[in-house]
Amino acid sequence: MSATPLQIGLAGFGNVGAGVYKNIEKNRHLLRERTGRDLIISRIAVRDPQKARAFALPSDIVTTDLDELVSDPDIDMIVELIGGTSRAFELVKKALESGKSVVTGNKALLAEHGKELFAIAEKAGKPIYYEAAVAGGIPIIKTVQESLVGNHIQSVVGIINGTCNYILTRMTEAGLDYEEALKEAKDLGYAEADPTLDINGWDAAHKAIILASLSYGCWMPCDEIYVEGIENIKREDIAFAEALGYTVKLLGVIQLHEESGAIEVRVQPSLIANDHILSSVKGVFNAIMVHGDIVGETLFYGSGAGQDPTSSSVIADIADAASRIDAPNGTGFVTHGLYGKSLPVEESVSKYYLRIEVDDKPGVLAKIATILGEREIGILSVIQPEDDDEEHASIVLTLHYAKYGAVCEALGKISELNCVRNTPVLLRME
Ligand code: HSE
Questions:
Q1: What's residue 102's pLDDT?
Q2: Amino acid 427: pLDDT
């Protein structure tokens, strides 16, 4: 065992930061045995020390100055849990340039600035660890980096936002309204401080960018991926999906198109068949299916958010860094030239669910079918529930495999029909 403890500067003492502090204390002995070093959080930087907190801030080691963590020569490692991208970027950059290893759970930071930060890490010869940035407590980063290192990754598909999965599950199983379910997710601490990023799909998108970049050795630009959230999912769509034998999930899809070498990255609410294993992933749980050319299909499941699961991943990184600090082994990201092209979303292919509110008149379905047929989009099934409203009707269609661009174009034409009453709802069926 090394006589010198590992000194950690912790930036941020929110839900996850407090969890890291609490759980390092809880399992101190175990961690010392396993890493060979004592892990000491010797300084904590917070914006407002007076803020009411569920877990008391150890006031003797608190500062409000992030630079104090970086300039302290005794601190070996910075754990960045402040979130956001501006101050976090400066902190991580300065930490690396000061010769400190970095652990971060900040997916937005890596998705937006990963390329730049890993170049700084390379130059400084110091690694960045980021297990907590994707899927909370599921060890997916080390899995792709280490356990699947011998594979070409063919696809990564998963439920990677716990808040959205919680909201959709509560809407499905308890019949809650979207707003009620969101409030529950916030009260339970699953949603980000600003839940907009959860529900508009961007939290999942940041994670998808990290997974895509890690799988394909090149940083996928944020503006080359397609993102849609769950804000417009209605209970009636969940009910129609149920009637068709499907469950609505927010899905991250990362897929290599072998012939063109292009990489498809998108986040969209999608229908998953009830006999598919991902449909049974409920509540705040996440699940990620990784398909490698050698290993075949693999599935990783666990808590995708929450204080303890996420702090488990941060502590794993701290322990990893503690073991490797004297013998660094790369920066945590390996670029390579095999891939680099992203697939435009218009080219991506799937089946679709389409709900259209129309005037209940003869010929309406024929007009819709003609627009689809002209674009060679086949109809798989049609439902038109009988109801008491004699003027309006909901038509639910499921469509055969087709390019997203063609379906969106058809939808534009359908929306222009006089008989159509709403903006049609389009969901993918995966
Ligand atoms: N708000 C995130 C989620 C937390 O709901 O998945 C973990 O990133």
A1: 97
A2: 96
Task: Quote the pLDDT of residue 388.
Answer: 60
pLDDT tens for 19-30 read 999 999 999 999
- Residue 393 has a pLDDT of 87
Looking at residue 338, its pLDDT comes to 83
Which residue, by CA, sits nearest to atom 4 of ligand 1? 305
Which of 159, 161, 182 has the most ligand 1 atoms within 8 A of CB, as the residue to mutate?
161
CATH of 140-304, picked from 3.90.1150.10, 3.30.300.20, 3.30.360.10, 3.30.70.20, is 3.30.360.10
Which stretches in the chain have pLDDT values below 50? none
Long-range Cβ pairs for the range 201-204 (8 Å, 24+): 201/161, 201/164, 201/227, 201/228, 201/229, 201/230, 201/250, 201/267, 201/268, 202/108, 202/227, 202/229, 203/107, 203/161, 203/163, 204/160, 204/161, 204/164, 204/250, 204/252, 204/267
- For residue 198, the ligand 1 atom closest to its alpha carbon is 1
**In the annotation, is 207 catalytic?**
yes
Strand partners, 39: 6
The CATH homologous superfamily of the domain defined by 6-136+307-324: NAD(P)-binding Rossmann-like Domain (3.40.50.720)
Mutate to test the pocket of ligand 1, among 16, 190, 312 (most ligand atoms within 8 A of CB): 190
Ligand 1 atom with the smallest distance to the CA of 310 is: 7
CATH architecture of residue range(s) 345-429: 2-Layer Sandwich (3.30)
Q: What pLDDT score was predicted for residue 19? A: 97
